[in-house]
User: What shape does this take?
Amino acid sequence: MNENLSEIHDEIVRMNPGEPEFHQASLEVLQSLAPVIDKHPEFARQKVIQRIAEPERQIIFRVPWQDDAGEVHVNRGYRVEFSSVLGPYKGGLRFHPTVDLGIVKFLGFEQLFKNALTGLPIGGGKGGANFDPRDRSDDEIMRFCQSFMTELYRHLGEYTDVPAGDIGVGQREIGYLFGQYKRITNRYESGVLTGKGVDWGGALVRTEATGYGTVFFLAEMLRAAGTELADRTCSVSGSGNVAIYAIEKLHQLGAKVVACSDSDAVVHDPAGIDVELLQQVKLVERGRVSDYAARRQGAEVLPAGAIWSIPVQVAVPCATQNELTGDDAAALVANGCIAVAEGANMPTTADGVRVFGDAGVCFAPAKAANAGGVATSALEMQQNASRDSWTFDFTESRLQTIMCSIHDLCLRTADEYGRPGDYVAGANIAGFHRVATAMCALGVI
Assistant: This one.
């Protein structure tokens, strides 16, 4: 990274103290941008990087709610609207006790470039709360969501800001949020939230989209490297929607997933994860992977964090940020891993990315590989705007086309800027270029 870009990053750190994830995400992007600034000096003159790194709006608010026993709780809600230069802010809501401003800013920063890569007219934003929905009743979650939306609604709109789900926010939570938005505004503005149920404005494939899209990108990356996904052994961290549907698509394309995880444990199933049983345990019963192992002959439970020690050829981290460290990456490489596709947001540490790069492992970064979720959210917005609904096969075909286009754009951009085969550089440069070009066109705003 050249001196000017290093100074810009130092200023980002100074302006955003105590936000290491945001520092990490911004550094990872800036390290790719020197050749872009050399080719387009107008981006430096107009201070595009500095403007991108400063969100257009940061909203922090109190979320009071009452549990089933009548006790009052107070959480903190966030919505960081990074950039609307390409379209309305678009990005998920995360409900998890670890959520703070730095987490939301890192997610929003990544989301901006991810959304740009789709080629669809959506800007970037992210939000959430330090609320833990685990072990809460449906009524408690409903009351929390209603309180959260009572404050946030004034900042939303189908042409302003369109949230979706993330960790801790699934179709149940989206339903409660949408119901409160409708109640307050007296409008059935279905395009204001995505990830809705298919019976009330949602899109087929949206639930599966992030996991499916990650695997579509992975398959294209391996094909470009002269090999195939079929018959590969895989591990997929996590066991939520992203992980489950990544496992499902991997199996459909002929690979075998032998391990998945949650925050409590890892399950190793050498015969291949039974997707239907995993869906029943995790999505229907809201159980743990240890419950899956108890009902699956031959499956064993390993300690939390052990998933990357299992020998596989393909790793798909789908749990949370910085879950795959440099030591984990070294273990995967030593055990014969040839490809990694990030289904979660920034799940690999900087050290891990370096290990994979030095070893020649094909590496698909999150802002490219997991863009299928937001891409299908944009397709859901299209259907809402036209009062239409599409078939599963048609929507999945659109998703696959978008993911293949993102793959080709990243590969082509990496070649153009002298980084052949470097999907991290390709994704960062291509996403940044689209945002920067629009910023310059609209003036200093």
